[in-house]
Amino acid sequence: MNNFSQAQEIVKKYNQEHLLKFYDNLNEEKKKILINQILETDFKQLSKLYSHINDIKDSKDEITPITYIDKSKLTNEELEKYMEKGKDVIKNNKYAVITMAGGQGTRLGHNGPKGTFMLGTTPDKSLFEIFCDKLKKIKEKYNVTIPWYLMTSKENNLETTKFFEKNNYFNYPKEAIKFFIQDEIPMIDKKGKVILTEDGLIKQAANGHGGVFESMFKSGIIENIKKKKIEWIFIGPVDNPLVQMTDELMIGIAVDKNVMAVGKSIVKANPEEKVGVFCNRNGRPSVIEYTEITKELSEMRDSKGELLYGESHINCNLFNIKAIEKIGTNKLPYHTAFKKATYMDENGKIVKPEEPNCYKFETFIFDAFEKLDNMQILRGKRKEEFAPVKNKEGTDSPETARKLYEEYYK
Length: 410
Ligand code: UTP
Fold this sequence. Notes:
This protein is of the alpha/beta class. It is 31% helix and 19% strand.
């Protein structure tokens, strides 16, 4: 059976025949792409995800508060001890950074990869350049070149790599910067039908920041890291210019406590703030998303008046190489988001919806925490760590982030 007949059988079996309806209108190259997309799509998994979309979340998990180290309460001796241990790791070339830059950044609405967004500082710099500057400072300070890996998506990889080339890798050693592409998963509409792009191909979206582990293995990045004998890998987001690319304290604590990972937290501003919080789930480290926490849990306080679930997860986590190997390519669960996406309908018409119209499936990095034997939470200071660039305007926008960034670096 040839590829086309195989694809025909598949779409028939999974009730997705509309995918081949406009096949004849495509050019030869796109025909091939579409057929490959159909052959590579796990339709069984998609049907399963669709059938569970409206499931009520399992509330039988036992959620308890998590303990943490508070940076502001450390004594000078403790600080010094941890800092020294952290510096040793860096100076001995045992440290690398991964920046997750595969997100779509739909809320920001910037025309291009989020990392290319110019923050509006003086002098004006892109988020990528801001991060690279931090690595350059460490290079000067310790005379080491920290390997920098960037996770992109199929959608933004070319633009991202071109941006680095155009900017001469911000004068960081080119060979220390590597890109790897994360996986995608098709988007489906309310009826469970896979949607088509304006070009008549399957509409895919990056599979969430939890895809970082699987992609590290698939792309060979993990081999590259092991060859360099790197032991500690910081994984952080692209949309927060205050990310500490190299936090000696965090690294030193990881070494001293002999843990598999350290998660950076900041105090949740108020019970309603839209951030996930660290907790123990059935006795293991985890995060409850802001969409999943109950009002009761979010408002609980301890005897000192602090929120019991107040350690916000800011997507800045440090992993030992053994932790990443343990997480491996095991599939993380998919979470569902209802999004707005332009598509081609069953009559071949391009529809630009005003309201969310389709489901996107994403895995989250923190779902990997419970696979770890142990994890330390380190509470940092909000003004030193957190200036998210999420929305076009208002809270967590370029304007608020720029202010926080300039305030910190003043
Ligand atoms: P967000 O969860 O805020 O998603 O990403 P986003 O795609 O950037 O923005 P919206 O939701 O569409 O507006 C947090 C971090 O995780 C990365 C992002 O690039 C950002 O650094 N991320 C997210 C990925 O690398 N891949 C993904 O599939 C999703």
